[in-house]
């Protein structure tokens, strides 16, 4: 079988060669790099960061009316490019579907995935990936119409629930119903818009997906959003974050600490606006170290010392990134508040 | 033959029925027996049941049409200030919100292609349409058509990719003038069929164009950023242009007397037809990179393109084989008797007749594949349909899918309808000798 596939591959290759011969002579294809151990060097020599993003998820990564990618994950790509290359614009975005994303990372088509990917045991251990940080804590929740009077998920006995198939969402729902001894009638609908439509039209009593998705669906109803309630129960853990290939600790560190720099900046009250001033005049030692005025934190990861300053200047601190992209969708900070405010976002010390 | 018979009989009857001495001028039949009124009576109101059905359907059609016109035109909103969709939400269900198309049409048409560079994909679409029109005219069915295709497709590649690493050729005004002169010369030589002149001059122009990136100021645009209608046209055009010759070879191979070739062709057709296009696309985009040596990465669009070519090739091969089999055995034998070689026989006798026979199923497959290119959405390529879907992801525009789908559907319809209409004419023209 493998032989056949190889032969097929060779045939396809030959055809590909013939087909590209003409345009390739003119198109200067950027030299595609192999998944090398030293990702940072590869990115530097290429001059651009190749970032795998969602093909279209409001707030996280989607092209706007002018075709430019925007969103929470996209801002992280920009921050990383600013830290690595000094320019937030030097990013090539590769839109990836859920099925493609891991192969694209494994084969080196992209340097890093910022594609709202859930960190789970099997993905971390058996796919050859690392999950350097969690930049968004999500979880599955329920939305009901206020008119039903339901206040808590424990009242959902016998309810019909609109859910998308093939995702962990469907599985979580079944697990939760079994664990709580509830009879739930799932209505499985493939596309998100249609599932939402069915819920709005009253075909199901409940719509379930990740809380961020529920919040944006609710906000999209405009003035009628008051008619819908997101129940307080969250039935699953969906820690989302960047993914890198295993075996490159330096790059992993940079990805992780770029996130931590944004979180620390929020904690220290450093914003996109005041970061330059803070670097000049803020006397706090941690600010001085973070922004590269004292110490040599940057050099320890092979970057210039002002790497964090550049990242913060490009996209702002964590709170700013969150508010700019997810605020308009009506997504609350919730568990993504800073640890000082009762949330889970916590940056290890910069020293 | 049938109408002629009837006329003859009518004349005969009249002659028999004529009363001698009476005026022979034919009288017109009563108004209720001919004309639109009679047609209505005969076809729509022939019985009470048929009358009831007619009235009901007429009522429904009128109501639906009025409803649609009200929704699509009378109550529609054509424009809103930047992303302020409240007005649209208020009239939801009553009127269409074409503002979504107004606001997003450039994204739907050109996807994530850099906004300032949209003139390039726009020009590419025009070039494609021009190429189709030229290829459709029989006047241009000559050997040089291949050259036109090669030239235009190259130009399309240059436009889409751009690039500015080339040295500064064409920077000087005299170089630009020279290029223009050469271009004109190539066109002139081509018109006069002097391929010996046309080819080298075209090559020079082509080389100059390739170096013209910096002059036309076309920054390099990597393939991930291509999108929208050009992607659909590229996939469909290249797909069918490469698949069709492949299909002819496979169809001939399947009827070959050499067992190895026959087996190979059967294997290819059955293997490819046995799996859905989606799984081929998946294989091209997800599995294929893993078989490549490290450091080698074939463009995502190209991989999808090859999958589409292979898939379309298998289907078209079966259509062509149908045509080959429909040809009477005598044609083959006659060609053999003339002492033609295999390729002469195939090229001069067999294929012209066989392909003519299978125009309807061929066009059927073409149209099918034109629309099947939208399946590339599963591998994250922004073709026309995917771009349309992505346009309504932004929260402000969620829920205006119908308008976008109508817009995208109209574009697909225009291309498919043109194909179908053209094939009807072609069929009528090529099969004129068979009409009785």
Task: Give short descriptive properties of this protein.
heterodimer; A: 351 residues; alpha/beta; 6-stranded mixed β-sheet; 5-stranded mixed β-sheet; 13 strands; 40% helix; 17% strand; disordered N terminus; B: 436 residues; mainly alpha; 19 helices; globular
Could you describe the 3D structure shown?
The complex is a heterodimer of chains A (351) and B (436). With 351 residues, chain A is α/β, with parallel strands linked by helices. Chain A has helices at residues 2-24, 39-46, 72-85, 101-106, 121-126, 168-179, 192-200, 211-220, 249-267, 275-281, 285-290, 297-300, 307-315, 318-325; strands spanning 49-54, 62-63, 69-70, 91-96, 112-118, 129-130, 136-138, 140-145, 160-163, 185-188, 206-210, 228-230, 238-245. Chain A is 40% helix and 17% strand. Chain B is globular. Chains A and B meet through helix 1, strand 2, strand 4, helix 4 and helix 8 of A and helix 5, helix 7, helix 13, helix 14 and helix 18 of B. Chain B: It is found in: Cell inner membrane; Cell membrane.
Helical stretch count of chain A? Answer: 14
Portion in strands of chain A: 15-25%
Helix-strand makeup class of chain B: mainly alpha
Shape of chain B: globular
Low-confidence stretches of chain A: 1-34
Sum up the overall morphology of chain A in one term.
Answer: globular
Q: Please bin the fraction of helical residues of chain B.
A: 55-70%
Low-confidence region ranges of chain B? 6-10
Organism (chain A): Caldovatus sediminis
Protein name (chain A): Amino acid ABC transporter substrate-binding protein
Family (chain A): Belongs to the bacterial solute-binding protein 3 family.
Pfam families (chain A): SBP_bac_3
């Amino acid at each position: 079988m493998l032989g056949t596939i190889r032969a097929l591959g060779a045939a396809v290759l030959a055809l590909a060669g013939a087909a590209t011969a003409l345009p390739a002579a003119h198109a200067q294809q950027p030299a595609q790099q192999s998944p090398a151990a030293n990702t940072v060097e590869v990115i530097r020599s290429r001059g651009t960061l190749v970032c795998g993003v969602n093909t279209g998820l409001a707030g996280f990564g989607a092209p706007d009316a002018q075709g430019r990618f925007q969103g929470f994950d996209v801002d992280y790509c920009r921050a990383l490019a600013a830290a690595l290359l000094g320019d937030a614009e030097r990013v090539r975005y590769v839109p990836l579907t859920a099925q493609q994303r891991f192969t694209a990372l494994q084969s080196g088509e992209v340097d890093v995935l910022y594609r709202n990917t859930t960190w789970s045991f099997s993905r971390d251990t058996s796919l050859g990936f690392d999950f350097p940080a969690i930049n968004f804590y999500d979880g599955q929740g329920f939305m009901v119409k206020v008119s039903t009077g339901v206040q808590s998920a424990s009242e959902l006995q016998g309810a019909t629930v609109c859910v998308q198939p093939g995702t962990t969402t469907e599985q979580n729902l079944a697990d939760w119903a079994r664990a709580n001894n509830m009879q739930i009638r799932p209505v499985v609908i493939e596309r998100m818009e249609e599932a939402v439509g069915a819920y709005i039209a009253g075909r199901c009593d409940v719509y379930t997906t990740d809380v961020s998705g529920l919040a944006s669906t609710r906000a999209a109803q405009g003035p009628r959003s008051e008619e819908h309630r997101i129940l307080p129960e969250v039935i699953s853990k969906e820690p989302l974050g960047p993914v890198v290939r295993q075996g490159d600790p330096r790059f992993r560190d940079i990805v992780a600490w770029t996130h931590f720099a944004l979180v620390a900046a929020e904690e220290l009250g450093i914003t996109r606006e005041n970061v330059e001033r803070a670097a000049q005049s803020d006397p706090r030692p941690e600010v001085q170290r973070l922004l590269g005025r004292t110490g040599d934190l940057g050099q320890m990861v092979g970057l210039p010392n002002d790497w964090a300053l550049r990242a913060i200047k490009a996209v702002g601190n964590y709170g700013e990134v969150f508010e700019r992209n997810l605020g308009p969708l009506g997504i609350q900070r919730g568990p993504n508040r800073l640890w000082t405010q009762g949330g889970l976002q916590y940056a290890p010390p910069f020293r | 033959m049938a109408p002629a018979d009837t006329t003859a009989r009518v004349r005969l009857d009249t002659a028999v029925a004529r009363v001698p001495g009476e005026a022979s001028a034919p009288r017109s039949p009563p108004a209720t027996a001919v004309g639109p009124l009679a047609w209505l009576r005969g076809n729509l109101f022939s019985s009470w049941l048929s009358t009831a059905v007619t009235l009901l359907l007429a009522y429904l059609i009128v109501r639906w049409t009025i409803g649609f016109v009200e929704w699509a035109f009378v109550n529609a909103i054509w424009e809103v200030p930047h992303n302020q969709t409240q007005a649209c939400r208020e009239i939801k269900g009553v009127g269409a919100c074409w503002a979504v198309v107004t606001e997003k049409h450039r994204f739907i048409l050109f996807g994530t292609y850099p906004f300032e560079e949209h003139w390039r994909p726009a020009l590419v679409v025009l070039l494609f349409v021009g190429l189709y029109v030229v290829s459709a005219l029989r006047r241009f069915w000559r050997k040089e058509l291949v050259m036109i295709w090669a030239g235009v497709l190259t130009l399309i590649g240059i436009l889409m990719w751009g690039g500015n690493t080339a040295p500064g050729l064409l920077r000087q005004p005299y170089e630009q003038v020279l290029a223009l002169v050469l271009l004109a010369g190539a066109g002139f030589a081509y018109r006069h069929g002097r391929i010996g002149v046309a080819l080298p001059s075209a090559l020079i122009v082509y080389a100059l164009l390739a170096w013209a990136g910096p002059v036309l100021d076309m920054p390099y645009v990597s393939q991930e950023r291509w999108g929208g209608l050009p992607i659909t046209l590229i996939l469909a055009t290249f797909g069918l242009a490469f698949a069709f010759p492949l299909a002819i070879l496979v169809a001939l191979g399947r009827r070959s007397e050499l067992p190895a070739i026959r087996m190979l062709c059967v294997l290819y057709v059955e293997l490819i037809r046995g799996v859905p296009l989606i799984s081929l696309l998946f294989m091209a985009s997800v599995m294929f990179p893993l078989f490549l040596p490290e450091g080698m990465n074939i463009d995502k669009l190209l991989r999808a393109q090859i999958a589409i070519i292979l898939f379309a090739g298998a289907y078209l091969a079966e259509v062509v084989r149908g045509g080959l089999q429909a040809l009477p055995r005598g044609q083959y034998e006659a060609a053999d008797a003339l002492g033609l070689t295999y390729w002469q026989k195939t090229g001069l006798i067999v294929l012209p007749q066989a392909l003519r026979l299978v125009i309807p199923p061929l066009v059927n497959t073409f149209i099918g594949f034109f629309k099947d290119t939208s399946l590339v959405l599963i591998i994250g390529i922004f073709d026309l349909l995917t771009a349309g879907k992505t346009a309504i992801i932004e929260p402000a525009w969620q829920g205006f899918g119908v308008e976008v789908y109508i817009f995208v559907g109209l574009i697909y319809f225009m291309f498919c309808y043109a194909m179908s209409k053209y094939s009807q004419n072609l069929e009528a023209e090529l099969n004129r000798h068979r009409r009785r």
